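notes to self, project folder thing:

trying the whole complex as one job this time. last attempt i did each chain seperately and stitching them together was a nightmare. two parts in total, labels are on each line so i dont mix them up again. if this works i'll redo the older ones the same way
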Amino acid sequence: MSAKSAGLVQGTLDMLILRTLALEPMHGYGIGVRIEQISKSVFRVNAGSLIPALNRLERAGFLDSEWRATDNNRRAKYYKLTEAGRKKLKAETREWESQTSAIARILNASLGEI
Amino acid sequence: MSAVKPFLAGLRSLFRKQDVEQELDDELQDYFQRAVQQKIESGVDPARALREARIEMGSTEATKERVHESGWQSIFESIAQDLHYGLRTLRKNPGFTIVAVTTLALGIAANATIFSFVNAVMLQPPAVHDADSVVVVYGTTTRQSFSNNLNPISSPNYFAWKSANRVFSEVAAIQPWQNVNLTGTGEPEQLNSVSVTANFFSLLGVPAALGRTFEPGEDQKGDDRVAVLSYGLWTRRFASDPNLPGKTIGIDGEQYTVVGIMPKSFSLRSFPAEIWTPLVLDPAQQDQTARQKRSYFLFGRLKPHTTTLQAQANFVALAGQAAHDFPATDGGWSAGALTLQDYMTKEFNAGPAIAILICTVAFVLLIACANISGLLLARATARRKEIALRMALGAGRARIVRQLMLESLILAIFGGSLGVLLSFWGAALFRAKLNFNVETRLLKIQIDTTVLLFTVGISVLAAFLFGLVPALQTTRSDMNSTLKDSGAAVSATRGRNRLRRLLVAGECALAVFLLSGSGIMIHALYLSWHEYLGFNSDHLLTAGITLPVKNYSSVTMQHEFFTNLLQKTAELPGTQSSALTSDLPGTGAAHDTFTLQGEDLPPAKRPRAVYFVVSPGYLAAAQIPLLRGRDFARSDNSSAPKVAIVNAEFARRFFPGVDPIGKTIRIDTPDPERADWRMIIGIAGNVKNFSLQHSDDPEVYESYLQHPATAMNVVVRTAGDPGALAPSLRQAVYGLDKDLPLSDVESMTKLLNTQETGDHFFTAMLATFAGLALLLAAIGIYGMVAYSVGQRTREIGIRMAMGAQRKSILRMVVAQGAWLALIGGGIGLAMSLPLPQAFSAMFQDFYVTGTQVFIAVPLVIALTALLACYIPARRAVKVDPTRALRCE
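result (full assembly):
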């Protein structure tokens, strides 16, 4: 991950990839661009972390891949969410939400409460 | 799914490396091009776009490496790498590798060989169907027992228990250890035979290899003239005649039809048989007399979901019932049940010897491991720079430890393989040496799968034992100081020194313990061989003879035969004297309870004595001294008053301070009609009943003229070589009855030797292993002292340059080694002190003392250790100080 996203919580990248692919199958570069766009350039993901992450997720059975033809006679490796991946995303999201809301509660607590 | 996919992906990476690499390259290339294209599209100048994209991408090689590392196959690959590296390291140090592998191979070979024996005695299941559910029921007695308390039971109990037990689906009875005479074809021959009920073979689930086994009803009177032969007898005596089933053979002069031949693999060690005949038992004749005749063992097939423990409880209860109902005959008796395999293990009675052998070889292996540990430690010092460098370059400690352990494992694999090869030879030696009786001949000592698995197990264990501590120790060193250090260290690091000292002391302790243990055993065995047996075994020819009751039905006929035989043997040229005895001295004898006149104890409480039926003149022929009174005379016959002779131990125990001559006793023979009161007429010297026995048993002699017996041994005292008289003895018997074979025609000396072969072999093995342990320990101590002296060459150089005398340096080095040997030896000696007591408890009737051994062994170890220290120390002080100072 680039310098900007150095603070990204470990394992969050996996969740972001799964979320991005939940919409439609996509190739590696597309995933990176999509994450950058949606996060309004807060997260910038480069090939050095994205490709190994995709590979790892595919091996774990959360993603499937196939080579597809794209525009101007090129081919790209498209990744697609599997059923296991969908479940994983659901679980991760739930976990993430409960954690963030807990952190938010702590941060928003008044002095007296702490 | 979640486990299969990564596995398949890993396999693909391993075996289709090219494809996987290509795909990853394509993906990264595509990514890069898209990034460039994106930048151009957003208006960046192409050359700049290319550069920016490249910077953003980072190193593609690093990315590929990260992808690669995430799979399991990368661990596999790095292990393959380590393996390659380890093999190369070992090949580059041939001296170290050869010493380590040989040491380990010797240790493992010793263990594998002993285990192949243990496997044959205790682990191989008997060749019957579903061996775990075949149970043997035997009798036990609370009376003084001379053996391992596995006794036969009586036939009334067989019938009662057969129907009353709740644990067996089927019950068979056998009468083992019978001798029959094979007659008719060729020279008569005595065979081991077992009589069995008709369902015996079907209960075991073993079909005949040829023909059939017994059919129901063939154990009834009139239908019982059938026999099943062992494979060995069939090939040896009948030339493997395929048409033998259906033909008749002569057994004790009667015609039996051979119905089948058993498979070659079928043998029951505890109940050896070359021929099986039906056991005929009449349910109508199970009276009081039959209750006293204990000759049978019960075989049972456990019902499903029933355990041996339940069977044991059931038969203890049944025996308790019998003791309650028939106190005169069954009082003091109980029963036991063991699986056939456990029964045979217990009956083999080698438990203590096996335990000692296992401990001995385990200690040999421990010493071997300590040696290799020491070598590895020494080598680790030499390799410390290499290792520090690798750690500096980023290798984790775990990775280095794994690498070092892998090297140990390689050593263990080579050592183990060589050890297995050696153990094939060891097992062959065992087979050759352990063929002295029918039971040991049936042991299947071989290197089978179980032994191989065991060897693999101990090899891996050994690798951890000798490899782990040096590996951890090596990687603990501080990398900075090691790298800076130009090899100018004056002495090795403290931790490593401490470990080395621990190893030296530990080896001394182990060696003292092992040598003491085997020394005590060997000493005790040696003493017992030279124990006076109470008779003169030189120039004594012996032979067994069993009169078939069918041909010699009356007592008169039996007396006539034996009297004629004695007359004929007395006339043989070279005979000095000859006599008969029911049991030979020193080879195990029968024993029975008896009653002293004036005492009336219930059978369970009566004392026991070893008991012989002999001919007049036996004491003189065997040269057993007659201490007081007189020997039997021919006039002490069936019409004269009954007389007996007792031994000195009998007199000491039962007539303390009283003259036993003239007193009367009654022996409880199995046949109650022959139990007569007998007057003691003489006192004979004590005779040992086992050649390794230290204590004396009470013994009673009766004359065959007053106590009929059909199975006797002839003893002939010869002027010359007893073996030379054997043919004429055979001829004499042939002249009396041509269908009567002589068994075990052997000189007494040879008989005793054969009997002791097992013990001699046991002793030889202990001595071999003890010698091996001493050698290994010496090599180990020498190696470690030599190494540490080598490390201190510079220090010694400094000391000498400062003016230290060679002598004082020599003394310093030797003293340091000797001090360690002293501490280790002391610990070993303390560990060994309880050994004599432990051995006495393990081997009854055996005289064990440790005093001489406890003096000799520490001396031997101390001398060995001093020598092992002195040689390297002397070499060290001979070095020129100027060279020593420059030494790195």
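what i see at first glance: DSSP finds 30 helices and 22 strands in chain B.
need to look closer tmrw
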